[in-house]
Design a protein that fits this description.
Helix content: 55-70%
CATH architecture of the largest domain: Up-down Bundle
Order of helices and strands: HHHEEHHHEEHHHHHH
Number of domains: 2
Number of strands: 4
CATH superfamily of the largest domain: GntR ligand-binding domain-like
Radius of gyration: 23 Å
Oligomer: single chain
Distance between the termini: 38 Å
Number of helices: 12
């Protein structure tokens, strides 16, 4: 195939589609670290596009950090050398993705939130503390007070996290938090749709803010996210294996 074939396919959407196919194959281990991707010519033939579209797709994979363009071809990089942007696609793989990925993500997010909270409360003035308390004390009940709206609770936690970074004014924490939230949005809910209420957690945080106890606030957050991690790990341990879920599948 030459570069004049399928010229109309050199579009950002088509390049993204090709990159997505190759990305998932790499993340699923269909190519080993250090192995070369097929040539541009072979990939162009496979996807029925010109080589320009393939080059654009490879640029996307390079930005993700999962391939490296070298003399002689494009080689697969180790997943642990990839950028944060690969986290979302890894979560999308579900049970085919890395073991403990979700619980590891919960641990990291909890640790970052705890650090952000401690830094914020150490410097917060009265007005800023009141803003945090207003967020935490806002009701998330949906109709019946005993029936809590998980979506509203997630929104409350997001507002609280944003308020913390506004107070501590730590750009690095904000950027890392933004990156993690971007990758997490919608994905954890799909994998773990049922989650326990956070109302008691919100009340506990509010008490530590009222006492201006930054260390206790950080500890409360760490404990909560540790509990979530244990619940996820326990659910993963008790879940049936793939072979048990599909007994007729060899």
């Amino acid at each position: 195939m030459n570069d004049t074939t399928h010229q109309g396919d050199v579009t950002p959407a088509r390049a993204q589609e090709i990159a997505g196919h190759l990305r998932d194959e790499i993340l699923l281990g269909q190519y080993r670290q250090g192995e070369r991707l097929p040539s541009e010519r072979d990939l162009a033939a496979r996807f029925q596009v010109n080589r320009g579209a393939v080059r654009e797709a490879i640029k996307i994979l390079t930005q993700l950090g999962i391939v490296n363009v070298q003399p002689g071809g494009v080689r697969i990089q180790a997943i642990h050398d990839a950028s944060l942007d690969v986290l979302g696609p890894l979560l999308d793989l579900g049970d085919q993705g890395p073991e403990n990925l979700t619980s590891d993500l919960i641990s990291v997010f909890g640790a970052l939130l705890a650090l952000s909270a401690r830094l914020a409360l150490q410097t917060a003035d009265t007005t800023q503390k009141q803003r945090l308390l207003t967020i935490l004390n806002e009701s998330t009940a949906d109709g019946d007070p005993k029936v809590l709206n998980n979506a509203a609770e997630r929104e409350k936690l997001a507002q609280f996290a944003n308020a913390l970074t506004d107070i501590n004014n730590n750009l690095v924490l904000r950027l890392i938090g933004n990156g993690l939230r971007t990758q997490m949005v919608g994905r954890l809910e799909r994998r773990h749709p049922a989650s326990p209420s956070n109302e008691e957690f919100f009340r506990a945080m509010a008490l530590t803010i009222e006492r201006s106890d930054a260390n206790a606030l950080a500890k409360t957050i760490i404990q909560r996210f540790d509990d979530i991690k244990r619940n996820i790990d326990a659910a993963a341990t008790s879940a049936p294996t793939q072979s048990n879920r599909n007994p007729d599948h060899a």
